[in-house]
Every structure is written in C-alpha cells, then in structure tokens.
Amino acid sequence: MFGLCLCAVLLVGVPSSEATSPILRGVAHNKELRWVLIDILHSLRPRDITCIAVISDSVYLNVFDGELFRIITNVPFVMIIVAEEEDLLSPNYITLKSLRQTKTDGCNVYIIFLASGLQVARLLKFGDRHRILDTHAKYIMLHDIRLYHKDLHYLWKRIVNVVFIKYHRKIIGNAKSRPWFDLLTVPFPNPIKSVLVPRRVDIWRNDKFHYNRSLFVDKTYNLYGQQLNAVYLDHVPSVVVTRDNETSKIGGVEVEIFKTLSELMHFEVNMYQPAHAELNKWGQKQANGSFSGLLGEMASGRADAALGNLQYTPYHLELMDLSIPYTTQCWTFLTPEALTDNSWKTLILPFKLNMWIAVLLVLLITGTIFYAMARYYMNLQDYRHDHDKRPFANALNQHPYRTECRLHIYFADAKPVGLYVFGEIINSILYTYGMLLVVSLPRLPTGWSIRLLTGWYWLYCILLVVSYRASMTAILANPAPRVTIDTLQELADSKVTCGGWGIETKKPEISDRFETINDPNDAANRVAQGVYAYYDNSNFLKYISVKRKSGLTMESDNATTNGSLVPPKPHEERDLHIMSDCVVNIPISIGFHKNSPFKPLADIYIRRIVEVGLVEKWLNDAMEPIRALEVNDEEIKALMNLKKLYGAFVALAIGYFLSGICFLLEIIHWNCMVKKDPMFDKYAIDVYYRNKNKK
C-alpha cells in the first residue's frame, strides 16, 4: 500500500477566499462534488493507481479538504494550485516544474478542477504539445462546453480515458430532490465529425452510481471497424512493394505486423504513400517549420500510423510515438571493392615477407658454407699435390719417357671430382639455388662434410618446396582475394565520400564527407564507380547490391520513375561490398501519431508477435527473393584461368629482361674491352685467353 504524499504548490496571487463559481455555488456549498470524486476514485482498483495529480484553483480548492485525504490514504498525491489569471499555454516556472514532477513520478490519474474551461483547454494543449501530461493516463475533469470546440477535437483522439463531471441542479419545486451528476466521456473510437457529442457513461445520484459501469475501460481493445490511415514508404525489408503491370502488392515485415494488429484490435487499414515519396522519402523540416514526406504526414496528424523502417531515435520520438522495437538492424555502409589485381604476385604470395627473408638468408648462408668447404678441400688437395709432386719431377728428368710422365702430372693437376660445383662463389650460390628448385647436382661432390650438408639441405628443400606447392595450389584454386573496406576506420582512411538519407545519420568519423542522397539507384552507381559509400541497414544494402548485380530493374518508390540498372562492366566498375562491421545496431519500430491511444495495447501485441517468432519468419519471407537472386562468385573457384597464371608470365618476363641486360653487357664488354686490348688476336683467341688466365 502507498503512503500518503501531498505536494502543494501555492502560487503568488492566489486569492485566499473560498468564493465559488456562480455555476457550482450549490455544489460547493453541499460538497456533493467531493463525494462524486471519492466514489470515482473508489471505482478504480488501487493497484492500477501509481499516483494522483490534482490540478485545481482557489475556486475548487475546498473540494480537496482533509476529509478526501482521510478517505483515500493509500495513494500518493501531487497537488498543484494555479492562479485564475495564469496562462497555462505558457505556465510559470513553478507550475511547469510541478507538471514535470507528475510525469516523473508516473502519475496515471489526473484530476483537473479549474473554473475556466479555456484555462483547461490551454493546459491540455500545452501538455500534449510538449508531452508534459501523460495522455494515456485517466483524466477526471469538470464538464465545460468550451472543451468540445472543434479546435480541440484532435485532443480527444489522444486523451480518450477521460470522465467529464456534469452538474445538474435539483428539481425546482421538489424539496426532496438533490443535485445529481452526469459522467460523460468522448465517443472514442467513433470518429468525431463537425460536432463532438459526449457519450454518457453513468449517472451519480443519491450518493451512488446508477448503472455501476466501469468508468475507464480500454477503448482500444475493440475499435469496431474504425479506419486508420497508415502512411508507408517502400523500404526493404519493412515495406516491400511488388508491382505487376499497373497493380501493386504491398508486403514486408511491418505491413504484416500492422495487418495482425488490425485483426486483433478490429480496425480497417487505409494504406497510402506521401506525396512525392520518391524525392521526399521520410521527410525533412522545411523553412516554414513543417515537415515533408512521411514525417510530414505524421506531424500534421493526417496519418495514424507510419510504416517505413523508422529508427527508434530521439529525432523520431519528438514527432511521433514509436512502438516497442520489433527488431534490431545492423546499419553499415555499402562500399566499393578495390580494383587492385595481385595475380602478378602469384609466385610470392605463398610466403609472407618474413618467410621470404628467411629463405633468402638461408640460401646465401648455405651457398657460402658450401663454397668455404669446397675451397678447403681444394686447398687441401693442392697442398697434398705440392708435396707429392717433387719426387715425380726428379724422376721425370731421369726417365727416358718424359712425355708420358708429363701427361700423368697434367691429369694429377685436375680438380677433385665434384668440387668444381662449389669451387666458385657464383657457382656455389647457383647450384644451392638449383637444389632449392629440386634440380639435382651434376655430380656428387667430394668430401664427406659436403655430402652430409648436401643431404640435410635436401631435406630442408623438400619441406620448403612441399609447403610452397601446397600454398600455391590453394592460391590458384581459390578466387583472388578481394580488397574491401570492413571497418569504420578503414572507411575514414579511404577518403571515399560517404552518404545516406538524412542529416541525422551522420557519423563523427566521416561527418565532414557525408552527403545526403535521395535515390538509392544513384547511390549504387556512385559506389560502383569507387567514389561513394552508401549508409543504410544491411538488408536494404543487400537488396540494392543484388538487384544491381543481377541486372534486373530496381523498382523506385513511385511508379512514375523506374531505375533500370545495367550489369556492371568488370573493367569499368567495381563490385559492391557490404561492410562487415556494423557502425551501429539500431532498434526499429512502427510509428503512431503523437500521444496515440493505440500505442499501449499495440506494444503488448507486438511483444507477443516477436516472442512467437513471426517477425523472424516475415523477415525471411521478405528477403527470400533477394537471396534467390544472389550470385555466388565462389561456385567456379576451382577452375583455372589465364589471369591466375599472370605470376608465371611475370616471372618469365623478368627472366627475359635480366637475361637481355646481361647479354647486352656482354656485347658491350666484348666490343669495348676485349677487342680493344692490344694482345687480342681474333685469329688466335685461345692463345689470348690462355695468356689472360695466366695473369
């Protein structure tokens, strides 16, 4: 049970007298109004009341005396006393602060007893315009014909849980008769035409209700076939418009949700598009303060609901009521893929840079070690040859067959078998490189240390070559890697112009390069040119990407214009890529007109629809045609083509180029160095080189 809470706000200038209005002088004197109010509050269930806000002036202040609070002690009160001359369309600071406090405290019952009906009307206008008063709360106020003026009819489409207390004097000439009261309400959901005729709920007479009806029933539970105007905007997957010749079929997630609400709440739906929807889209604020597009229909009150992928943001909440979010969408950018072709690097792609550096270092170090060992063995052989050569030389001078001995010594001067492979540093590096390419040596080298090193180096080459071939096979079998933009930071660094619909979608990282664009077809074309990135939800981005790639006609929001898209030419335009990282996950809701009475019950039904999985099912249904048109680029990834072998031709071209340079250098050396040598004789070239080598 709640404790008693009384917050009285007494304004300067409020008269302290208890003078009553001439119209209700008898009521105030007999205090009948107080008992009507007590019985109305007793008819409400205590658990349904969180707080009661009382707004009164000095004329009716005597109604709220201690006796009322003694009877109702289980509910907190917030009481606001206003001056009779105060303009409640622009209340003073204390009144405004008190009204805001009632909203903060969650008061769901408002008792407005003011002598001036104009003052009540201006209070209701102010509370509705600035959302100071909770229009979904229960209202108890005095009957005044000025509250039914046609300029206030829009209020009674929003404040529907209201009871007007209408006083009737006692019958003249009947001494036993007593004053009695009519309890009236607005005729919701029946439409209000030129004149508002309130509907009687009950009669209070002789200290009791005549019919004992419920005073505050849920009037939105059954709308009895009332027609609601729903403005929509074609935006996948919320609203999907399929055109067949001159007819249009409207589907999508939000359309299905709204149709379900119409069946549950028993109302008819009139769906229409705003004027110039293909240009205005959701709409923006105009110079005169009004709004265009879908937001304009909602702000002006012409539409009861809005279907069009509305984001649950403060920007939209200022203009309308939003249902609880039925889903959360990933909002990101449609970006161009880079045209950079790295197929010419096929030969170096299997290994990373640090791996190639390690392979090169091992090649140089191993070739140098082979050369050092070969030189050691060659020097050792020369040393042995010099010591064994002297006895043969002495014997040669004494032997009768000197020629044969010279021949024997000549062959003894030859290099050891196999050491010529690594005897020179250039040959050592080349043959070591040849082993790395699995090319066998022409001869097995002499020396066990070189042979052992050769064996272990062969094992290293086998492991390295197998790894290289496996990686090369994967690269040739798989499609070429795509260079894409997948994070907001990469997009900011790319210097690509970004854009979307609406200034409110700007992001700080790219706000200086953000451009608004109304036509998604134009946006897709600019993205394909590599100069633009388009911002929207991932489902809609997939829709425009697949439509463009499949070469089908992309329907615009209005039948007067069709954006025919031509499939992109591979050499002129880029493929479209949806950024994998979400910039933000935004809740999506259905819009209702400001302070709509339908929202509380609609929220309950939408929550049930989401819980049973219908939203997910309708989302899959809306995106199924798009997925069916999606082309899988990896279906033919195992086929080989000439483009994948660019690397081989690049390597061959590099070999031709280097060989040509070496050949040219040799020609220059022959003509500029060798032929100009005084010892050169073209008829005895062998003698020239023999003398050259001796030097």
TrEMBL record:
Residues in the signal sequence: 1-19
Record domain Ionotropic glutamate receptor L-glutamate and glycine-binding: where: 237-300
Domain of life: Eukaryota
Localization per record: Cell membrane
Alphabetized UniProt keyword annotations: Cell membrane, Glycoprotein, Ion channel, Ion transport, Ligand-gated ion channel, Membrane, Receptor, Signal, Transmembrane, Transmembrane helix, Transport
Xref: InterPro entries: Glu/Gly-bd, Insect_Ionotropic_Sensory_Rcpt, Iontro_rcpt_C
GO biological process: detection of stimulus involved in sensory perception
CC terms in the record's Gene Ontology section: plasma membrane
Membrane-spanning residues: 355-374, 417-436, 456-477, 645-670
Topology in membrane: Multi-pass membrane protein
GO molecular function ontology, one term from the record: ligand-gated monoatomic ion channel activity
Family: Belongs to the glutamate-gated ion channel (TC 1.A.10.1) family.
Protein name: Ionotropic glutamate receptor L-glutamate and glycine-binding domain-containing protein
Species whose genome carries this gene: Manduca sexta (Tobacco hawkmoth)
